[in-house]
Amino acid sequence: MFTGLKMAACAAARATARTAALATLLVLAMQAAPALAAGDTAHSVPLLAQAGPAVAAPNVSSPAPSGVAAPVAPTLSAITPTRMALLLPNRGGMFGAAADAVRTGFLTAYSRQKENIQLSIIETGDSAADMQRAYDDASAKFDILVGPLSRSAVTSIIQSGRVSKPTVALAQPDLPPDSEQRLPPLMLTIGLSIDDEARQVANWVEKEKTPGKIFAVSTSVAWQKRAVRAFQVTARQLGMQAEVLELSTPGNVLSAPGLAQLARRIEQEKPALIFAALDAAQTLQLRSAIGTELPIYGTSQINPYTLNRDNPNDKMPELDGVRLIDIPWQLQPDQSAVARYPRPAMADGERPNADLARLYALGIDAYRIAYEISLQRSGFDLDGVTGRLNVNLVGGGTTYFQRQETQAVYRDGWPVPTADQY
Length: 422
Prior knowledge:
Blueprint: H1 11-36, E1 43-46, E2 82-89, H2 96-112, E3 117-124, H3 128-139, E4 144-146, H4 151-160, E5 167-169, E6 187-189, H5 194-208, E7 214-218, H6 222-237, E8 242-246, H7 256-269, E9 273-276, H8 280-290, E10 296-298, E11 323-326, H9 328-331, H10 336-339, H11 354-374, E12 377-384, E13 387-393, E14 399-404, E15 406-411, E16 414-417
Parallel strand pairs: 2-3, 2-4, 4-5, 5-6, 7-8, 7-9, 9-10, 10-11
Antiparallel strand pairs: 1-12, 11-15, 12-13, 13-14, 15-16
Helix pairs in contact: 2-11, 3-4, 5-6
């Protein structure tokens, strides 16, 4: 098991000091935070301390009586460190590779901004019940929790009603679209979401103002069906007409008769464009069947590449002109937030995996968000490696998280950012 940093001292010995320290942090956060976050791009407002009585900070601007030393505000080293826990499935389970990618990204960000943070990494079994037990136990010992990683575990924690500490969940809950279940006031769900990407694509299409019907194409795979549903709902809300079409996949390829039928419908009905909730190989099949004239929009799954491009021949010029949404980590190596972090190391001969690269980036942004929360900030923006992030986490109030990813288009076989970003 990968163990985190040990707590510096016995919890019992710190208990009484912690209440006063957290209250004092409200006064100090606005002064100390800029120094702690030097070089970061966060803009924030302070979060009210949630524990302990209000404690007045010493008035360092008033002159001290003669012969009496003026009181001095506590330094950061005098503040009790924030205890942060990262909860992940163990490396030997079905989520092992995903957990390892998130862990590596998280530790990469931590190594560059660790002031006043005590970090522990807790590994559990894959089941939602295992993670629920670990979460409940960690809630009694830590100030900020990051995780779980799986949709089922996040759903379990939401439905348990036992979120009492700031929690940065790494996946979206698996709740029905019409569910009235709300996020707990202290929980953010920041997982990379194909549903959110589909909604962003719908907004992009609406900005382009292309008139006519839209065909939203998928197979029976669960993530693709979620994507076309999210796209269709958003498109209709924006006044556009989107029809969902599902293609069969015998032998793990798109059905040739199904593609031929789609091509005939396109010829007859003249849709404005296609939203393709497909992967790159399937989109290539689709493009070959219907030609290059009809615009195609899609999600990050149309980009199988990482920025570790060792093979210059590893391109798909057949997709030139296809538009998609993806995270800055996959598209913008020169962006300041991306350039400050190293790419994960790979073994000789190992082929870069785009999905694991995205999870590494998620780990980076998860730590950065948790770090801002540790500074007692409730509302802030981050120029993240997974997108432009807007965060609002107020106990008892509105919890809000939004990620705006990067728009891109295939050119010369590679997806590159578009000039206009909505």
